[in-house]
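Write out the 3D structure for:
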Amino acid sequence: MHPKIEPYIEWAIFKFGLEHYTLERHDLYRSINQFNETVYSLSMEWFPVHHTQQAQDDPDYNPIGTAVIDLDIGRSVANSIVFVGGKSYASQSTFSSMEDNVCGRSGCRALFSFT
């Protein structure tokens, strides 16, 4: 992991209460927005600490409770937060109730951004 990414990971742990998670995968993306500005995003997949070996063997598998977080690095905000299966092990009260979020078959997406 590149040292410049570490502060964003530490921020995510603190901001979203990910003490009961491990960072399994991360990727950096570059895109252009509608104002023709370059946007850099950090996508992270956080697995619950009690996940099974299947999650490590299959790169397409995300266990129930996986937190998938997409950060806009330039603006330091979360573009999206999805909990697989609508289950969260986050310690922050923000995620203790999913009633403020949109939940479907693939998980829950937060209706708000974080700064």
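The longest strand covers residues 21-32.
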